[in-house]
């Protein structure tokens, strides 16, 4: 009789967000509380996306957490129809877009949930959506407002 | 800095191959040593292996020593694996060029290998997703096709580029690949077939996207002084440029103007002391149809926004302003990530030698360029080559 050999554990797409694994765990703690945040350099005032521990403009380590706008508009969008990665094959087609946040010079790539590709248009209003993974990790997406 | 030449090249057939990473490396290695008669593996002092994702596609790292083993090479100067996602092959040539130019190396072998077709295609797609910043962009399920689909959407909106104009890039490059026995795709395409193909990420269909391809390519580099020992028609490296704006998808201000490409191209032309108008042959990174259209514009082959018109008028065909992707491009030959940049260089070498089928021969060509983008078009690599 042959035995079934279990396959090794692999990392998934989502960041490890616990303070044991990352120094920007505050981002995820904030997200759990519904806040969309990033870091700003106290020295040169640069807003850094994604959140950092060192300012890439002046190398200061004096960074503070600031809230980002939770609304914006679709700058561009498409749908993943063919070629989804592991774990997402059953979710196709799903919308992917670039969101231009309100009141700040910042664009963010995101899954756009709760809408069909056919119903999207450039300039469509969107807002933050927080998703929860089965192991209690969280992540952000956007959805139509 | 010494002047550097490519003196020979060899390819493994591109496609869905019944072959492993190591076997593909062996095939390209044999092909290049068959091409360069007065050279044996023992003469190679440095080895550069272009490989984007052997860790995921072949579950193997430390591939440079492995390639040395497959090809009987015992380097004494520099051994390196070069990873720059879709530009990994050009990266190998760039490192070899720098080492020979500096005098560190005398004769270097570059071999680019990628084995991409594996039993679980979702696993392969996952490997392409982590080219993007996995934690912030890839995590949304994004990979190259959705990104370039959004570039196409914005280009159509901002400049009125049409669906048919996108398709014409695929038609041209698949036409050229029918002249290339090493290409993955050997059939002519029509605009109709491209537009009505299976949707991958709208507006792009399967035939707007390059294939998932196994393949390998190899070249030999040496100094200009020694090049004539090995060939009558060496190909000189005249200039290069490379620029990046980081890896995050949204670092680029625009989806339709790729600023790092303009920076890399400007540096390449400046270092080669030529202008874009001097280029006879261009191997542009047509990973998607929209890519080639934006590249016509950002290289300066045509004005911004007129890339669609450029292909429509046949300006990127033989007999036009510049012959683009005569071997079939990534769309026609497939895109084994680590091999592509090297295969592009081999096309220019063979063109300069007059060693290509007459259907794609650009007679009298003296100057060519190869271009690779990587990631979400936020990294660009350009090399300028001249006929010796």
Looking at this protein, list some descriptive labels.
heterodimer; A: 145 residues; mainly beta; five-stranded antiparallel sheet; three-stranded antiparallel sheet; 8 strands; 6% helix; 35% strand; flat; B: 388 residues; alpha/beta; ten-stranded mixed sheet; two-stranded antiparallel sheet; 14 helices; 37% helix; 20% strand
Tell me what the structure shows.
Chain A is mostly beta strands and 145 residues long. Chain A contains one helix and eight strands. The longest helix of chain A has 8 residues, at 25-32. The model of chain A has no long low-confidence stretch (mean pLDDT 94). Chain B contains 14 helices and twelve strands. Chain B has helices at residues 21-35, 54-57, 63-71, 88-102, 121-129, 144-159, 163-177, 191-195, 224-227, 259-272, 289-299, 307-312, 329-333, 337-353, and strands at residues 4-15, 46-50, 78-82, 107-114, 199-201, 204-205, 214-223, 235-244, 281-283, 323-324, 367-374, 379-387. In chain B, helix 4 (88-102) packs across helix 14 (337-353). In chain B, 64% of the residues are buried. The chains are: A mainly beta (145), B alpha/beta (388). Chains A and B meet through strand 4, strand 5 and strand 6 of A and helix 5, helix 6 and strand 5 of B.
How would you concisely characterize the structure shown here?
The complex is a heterodimer of chains A (145) and B (388). Chain A is mostly beta strands and 145 residues long.
Question: What is the topological layout?
Answer:
The complex is a heterodimer of chains A (145) and B (388).
Chain A (H helix, E strand, L loop, with lengths): L24 H8 L4 E5 L5 E2 L14 E5 L3 E10 L13 E8 L5 E6 L12 E8 L5 E7 L1
Chain B lengths: L3 E12 L5 H15 L10 E5 L3 H4 L5 H9 L6 E5 L5 H15 L4 E8 L6 H9 L14 H16 L3 H15 L13 H5 L3 E3 L2 E2 L8 E10 H4 L7 E10 L14 H14 L8 E3 L5 H11 L7 H6 L10 E2 L4 H5 L3 H17 L13 E8 L4 E9 L1
Parallel strand pairs in B: 2-3, 2-4, 9-10, 9-11
Antiparallel strand pairs in B: 1-7, 1-8, 4-7, 5-6, 8-12, 11-12
Helix pairs in contact in B: 1-3, 4-14, 7-11
